[in-house]
């Protein structure tokens, strides 16, 4: 968990609709909206260069962001980025207002530790397979982990790690487990040649 303060400047906007959104983008700004916390939704805009730099940081997606609107500030989480169908272009950003201690649900990345030193890879020649690159969690604002770390050093060929095997911080819940879905996170498979040989031997 980080104590960093993530601040993004924004400006209120009154004009809405596709035509005005296109006009904003031509002027170097990205249309966005802030909603939630029992308040009316508010249309805002972001400077395109500042937004791309800010949103390129993985940490901002699992931390509370402060939107600086000049005369006031809003504490928010980034909920959605609408991307252009085939260009690397952000068309719209959704922010959700939050307050300290509020229980929120979001996706955080899975970071694998000791990938190259995993026993099944280094000693067994196995192939590491990532089944999940992110997991959905539920946690209070202020207690959100930036990522879930998974140490694969002791993982052998043919073994796997599931959600139920993960160590998560206190107050953090893995949403899939709440619904009885113990997803595989990572595993080590035998090399294709070795697998074929084993199958052949079993057939004999």
Automatic annotation (TrEMBL):
The keyword Ribosomal protein applies. This is one of the proteins that binds to the 5S RNA in the ribosome where it forms part of the central protuberance. It comes from Igneacidithiobacillus copahuensis. This is Large ribosomal subunit protein bL25. HAMAP family: Ribosomal_bL25, Ribosomal_bL25_CTC. GO terms for cellular component: cytosolic large ribosomal subunit. Gene3D superfamilies: Ribosomal protein L25, beta domain, Ribosomal Protein L25, Chain P. CDD domains: Ribosomal_L25_TL5_CTC.
């Amino acid at each position: 968990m980080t104590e960093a303060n993530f601040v993004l400047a924004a400006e209120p906007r009154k004009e809405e609709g596709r035509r005005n959104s296109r006009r904003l983008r031509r002027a170097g700004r990205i249309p966005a909206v802030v909603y939630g916390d029992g308040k009316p939704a508010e249309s805002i805009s972001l400077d395109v260069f500042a937004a791309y730099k800010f949103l390129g940081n993985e940490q901002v997606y699992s931390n509370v962001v402060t939107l600086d609107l000049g005369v006031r500030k809003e504490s928010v989480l980034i909920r959605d980025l609408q991307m252009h169908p085939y260009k690397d272009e952000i068309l719209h950003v959704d922010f959700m207002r939050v307050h300290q201690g509020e229980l929120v649900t979001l996706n955080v990345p899975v970071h694998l530790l000791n990938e190259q030193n995993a026993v099944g890879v280094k000693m067994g020649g196995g192939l590491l397979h990532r089944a999940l690159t992110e997991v959905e969690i539920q946690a209070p604002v202020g207690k959100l982990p930036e990522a879930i770390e998974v140490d694969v050093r002791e993982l052998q060929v043919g073994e796997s790690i599931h959600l139920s095997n993960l160590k998560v911080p206190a107050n953090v819940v893995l949403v899939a487990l709440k619904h009885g879905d113990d997803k595989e996170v990572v595993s080590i498979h035998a090399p294709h040649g070795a697998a074929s040989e084993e199958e052949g031997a079993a057939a004999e």
